[in-house]
Amino acid sequence: MNIIDTSISDIKIIEPCVSEDARGFFYESWNQRSLAQLGLDIGFVQDNHSRSLRYVLRGLHYQIRHPQGKLVRVIVGEVFDVAVDLRKSSPTFGQWVGAVLSSENKKMLWIPPGFAHGFIVRSEVAEFLYKTTDYWYAEYERTLLWNDPALAINWGVSGEQPILAEKDRVGLLLKDAEVYP
């Protein structure tokens, strides 16, 4: 596996070693020992799988208590994935990192606890898998407004209106949101 730094040092892009031949491909999407040797010693408790249609935008979600670290990847299609730093004490507070994740590039994104997370589907359909470091607690889930002008996230689908769940339509602006210390 290869670890690629991003503009926020705690967020990492992970490129697996892919073996491909005429039969197809194989790669390890998670190997605790290998990633620990690369500096990512992470324990996961839950796996999630979502399927979404083109222009569905999910997020920006986080849990104010029981924050979740997430290792995310796409197994069908393509998404633009975003993480926003919500750690008030961080020098990158309020900044975001985005990456294209697809079934073709097989890249994964490590998002540690303390970040809001979301993605928009760029292909006709996308299946999204992610591992979390803590369980989901509905009572602690919060949503940051996906199009907050203070964040100025370029979702890469200009001219298209995202398809949103109600909780994503009414997310809070960063200035009004609960954040981490």
CATH topology: Jelly Rolls
CATH architecture: Sandwich
CATH class: Mainly Beta
Number of helices: 2
Tell me the CATH superfamily: Jelly Rolls
**Biggest sheet, spatial arrangement of strands:** 1-2-10-7-12-5
Radius of gyration: 16 Å
Q: Describe the sheet with the most strands.
A: 6 strands, antiparallel
List the helices and strands and how they pair.
Elements: E1 2-5, E2 12-15, E3 19-21, E4 24-26, H1 32-37, E5 46-53, E6 57-63, E7 70-76, E8 78-85, E9 96-102, E10 108-111, E11 115-121, E12 125-132, E13 141-143, H2 166-169
Antiparallel strand pairs: 1-2, 2-10, 3-4, 5-12, 6-11, 6-13, 7-10, 7-12, 8-9, 8-11
Describe the protein.
With 181 residues, the chain is mainly beta. It has helices at residues 32-37, 166-169; strands at 2-5, 12-15, 19-21, 24-26, 46-53, 57-63, 70-76, 78-85, 96-102, 108-111, 115-121, 125-132, 141-143. Strands 1-2-10-7-12-5 form a six-stranded antiparallel β-sheet, with no helix packed on it. Strands 9-8-11-6-13 form a five-stranded antiparallel β-sheet, with no helix packed on it. It has a two-stranded antiparallel ribbon with strand order 3-4. It is globular, with a radius of gyration of 16 Å. It starts with a strand and ends in a 12-residue tail after the last helix. The mean pLDDT is 96.
